[in-house]
Specification:
Elements (H helix, E strand, L loop, with lengths): L1 E2 L2 E3 L2 E3 L6 E6 L4 E7 L3 H20 L2 H17 L1 H12 L3 H25 L4 E4 L3 E9 L2 E5 L5 H14 L3 E5 L6 H13 L6 E3 L4 H10 L5 E5 L2 H11 L5 E5 L5 E4 L5 H13 L11 E5 H17 L18 H16 L3 E4 L3 E2 L10 E2 L2 E4 L6 H4 L6 E7 L2 H9 L3 E2 L1 E5 L3 H10 L4 E4 L14 E2 L2 E2 L4 H7 L1 E9 L1
Parallel strand pairs: 1-5, 8-9, 8-11, 9-10, 11-12, 13-14, 13-21, 14-19, 18-19, 21-22
Antiparallel strand pairs: 2-3, 4-5, 6-7, 7-25, 12-24, 15-18, 16-17, 20-23
The structure holds nicotinamide-adenine-dinucleotide.
Nicotinamide-adenine-dinucleotide binds next to α7 and α8.
Length: 480
């Protein structure tokens, strides 16, 4: 069995306790590796290492820092096939997706922020005749980066890259459900010559390792992506300590389909936005709202294409829907399908666990599921399921569509399908989400602000936002 180790002070180490947890292959429903069951003493060691490394890393000439981060990006590209295979085995996602999206995005994150830091400049403001102000932005210190299991290396690097590029040193924790590519990443950092202690990766459980990172007085900022409930716990711990916080939380995103849309494009992209990565993407459009004039046509075509999706072994080329990340998560998704039925929903396709033959006989597979007939306010339409389950509801007017879209505590992303440009702008301005896609989905430009409103989070990642987060601004005013 592979043994994952912590990465502290440039070395791969066992946890202080000597204890390990099992790491499951969700497509087989069986453990295949172990990971450290670390605790607060490992976190303290990592924070100490990060503090020791901070003066040299933050003072390193930008060109040198950049070249190390670019080297890491190159090594990710070199190991694309190995990393994609590991990600698919660890998470359950189709290998094809890991190869085309997850791992290329991880190297893109490193490259984007390595070079962005070369272009970041600080502001200067002349107060006519009186004074000149200039603002410095210096790295905040040791940053804590905590990431989830759905897009493991993709989201891990999305935090680490801007933190390191800004000159911070980092203590990071990947999800205990998907630790493998973070471990492989630590080996690439060593190979790339990242100085010891600049990045420290502590594996283990959220309520032990994650909580210890958030609680540690030596960690100045917490960048967290995960569930809203965990986000609340983190905020409750970190806020009284006045730590800087970036919280990227859950979503229950509306997908608004107007009758004047490009129908083919809307249906085919909605299949993607519903079931990509088994629906385990925070940006998936799980509430589909369709204008009544095309409601029946849309539902029929959508269900037909959903039934054509191949649920199967993530390593097979034809597989479109892989395994859910864990047995617990699969049971949660299935329980929401039961709830939807109790709430009066009609399951038009899917709804059940899939049992495959062969090596994946014990895997955590669920059929892509389409449910209609539900009220906007029912729990199925209000709570995040985070699986291959969507609901479809009709609407009659634009006002109603906007009201339905906003009738939820979350506000991460929304998709709007219409060929009417004025409507696109009108609706985009009224929907309360941090990210709006019009006639597309998951089209990402890394320069744009990324994050949610309401219970979907606090703060924004992406572009300058992340570099600003990991730096502290200071204004210096000099009388002329
Ligand atoms: P989670 O909140 O259970 O865990 C996320 C991370 O936090 C894990 O590493 C976990 O170990 C750690 N953690 C758990 N308890 C902690 C604590 N008390 N203190 C510190 N860390 C703790 O989330 P998950 O189940 O891994 O991920 C799924 C969730 O993430 C979904 O809600 C999804 O919408 C959300 N998500 C959001 C975004 C976004 O950008 N907004 C992106 C991806 C996923």
């Amino acid at each position: 069995m592979d043994r994952i180790l912590n990465y502290i002070e440039g070395k791969l180490l066992e946890p202080a306790s000597g204890k390990f947890l099992e790491n499951f292959n969700p497509a087989m429903g069986a453990p295949y590796s172990t990971l450290p069951d670390s605790d607060s003493s490992d976190v303290t060691k990592a924070v100490d290492a990060a503090h020791s490394a901070f003066p040299a890393w933050s003072a390193m000439p930008l060109s040198k820092r950049t070249s190390i981060l670019l080297k890491i990006a190159d090594l990710i590209d070199r190991d694309l096939d190995k990393l994609a295979l590991a990600e698919s085995i660890d998470q359950g996602k189709p290998l094809k997706l890991a190869k085309s999206v997850d791992i290329p995005r991880a190297s893109a994150n490193m490259r984007f922020y390595a070079t962005a830091s070369m272009h970041m400049n600080s502001e200067s403001h002349l107060m006519e005749g009186e004074a000149i102000n200039y603002t410095t932005r210096t790295p905040i210190g040791v940053a804590g980066c905590i990431s989830p299991w759905n897009l493991p290396l993709y989201l891990f690097t999305w935090k680490i890259a801007p933190a390191l590029a800004a000159g911070c040193t980092v203590v990071a924790k990947p999800s205990e459900l998907t630790p493998m590519t973070a471990f492989m990443f630590s080996k690439l950092c060593i190979e790339a010559g990242l100085p010891a202690g600049v990045l420290n990766i502590v594996h283990g459980l959220g309520n032990k390792v994650g909580q210890a990172i958030v609680e540690h007085r030596g960690v100045s900022a917490i960048s967290f992506t995960g569930g809203t409930v965990t986000g609340k716990t983190i905020a409750a711990t970190a806020a009284p300590m006045f730590k800087k916080l970036s919280l990227e939380l859950g979503g229950k995103n509306p997908n608004l389909i107007f009758a004047d849309c490009d129908f083919e494009n809307a249906v085919s992209t909605s299949i993607q936005s519903s079931f990509s990565n088994q629906g385990e993407i925070c940006l998936c459009g799980s509430r589909i709202l369709v204008e009544r004039g095309i409601y029946e046509k849309f539902v029929n075509e959508f269900v037909k294409r959903t039934k054509e999706l191949t649920v199967g072994d993530p390593l097979e080329e034809k597989t479109r829907v892989g395994a859910l990340v864990s047995e617990g998560h699969m049971n949660k998704v299935l329980s929401y399908i039961d709830l939807a039925k109790q709430e009066g929903g009609e399951v038009l396709c899917g709804g059940k666990r899939v049992t495959l033959l062969g090596r994946c006989a014990n895997g955590y597979f669920v059929e892509p599921t389409v449910i209609v007939g539900l009220d906007q306010q029912c729990r199925t339409n209000q709570e995040e399921i985070f699986g291959p389950v969507v609901t479809i509801m009709p609407f009659d007017t634009e006002e109603e569509a906007v009201a339905y879209a906003n009738s939820n505590a979350y506000g991460l992303s929304a998709t709007i399908w219409t060929d009417n440009l004025k409507r696109a702008h009108r609706v985009a301005h009224q929907v309360k989400s941090g990210i709006i896609w019009v006639n597309c989905w998951l089209l990402r430009d890394l320069r744009t602000p990324f994050g949610g409103m309401k219970q979907s989070g606090v703060g924004r990642e992406g572009g300058w936002e992340a570099l600003r987060f990991f730096t502290e601004a200071k204004n210096i005013c000099i009388r002329i």
